Amino acid sequence: MAVIMHVDFPHKDIWEKEMATQMKELAESINKEPGFIWKFWTESKKDNMAGGVYMFDSREHAENYLKMHSARLKEYGYSDIRGKVFEINEELSKICKAPF
Questions:
Q1: CATH number of the domain bearing residue 7
Q2: In terms of residue numbers, what domain contains 15?
Q3: With a threshold of 0.90, does the pTM exceed it?
Q4: What is the pLDDT of residues 52-89, one digit of tens each?
């Protein structure tokens, strides 16, 4: 069963186009992760936060990715990383035009 994962963390450095340029290689590598379906990259200059909303094909794949990604973010110097995995109510989500 597909799941959604939300990750966020404090971020102050780069935004928008600059982030897209600097993170392009990382974005391409995420496409190769087991069970990965899609990701929305999120950023809020107002709140100094960045992160993403992901869809994976299983809780196991999402949790494995979250563990690896949290460690990678810590290596990049980030802290206070929050991540949660949620099951999806597909019936209600389809009514609301979720991108399945």
A1: 3.30.70.100
A2: 3-85
A3: yes
A4: 999 999 999 999 999 999 999 999 999 999 999 999 99
Predicted local confidence at residue 13, as pLDDT: 87
Residue 57 lies in a domain: yes
- C-alpha to C-alpha distance for 5 and 65, rounded to whole angstroms: 10
Q: Is 56 helix (H, G, I), strand (E, B) or coil?
A: strand
pLDDT of residue 78: 95
Q: Which amino acid is at 17?
A: K
Please report whether residue 100 resides in a domain.
Answer: no
3 state DSSP class of 85: strand
Question: Please, what's the b/e burial string for 30-64 (b: 16 or more CB within 10 A of its CB; e: otherwise)?
Answer: beebebbbebeeebeeeeebbbbebbbeebebbee
Contact 8, 38 (CB under 8 A): no
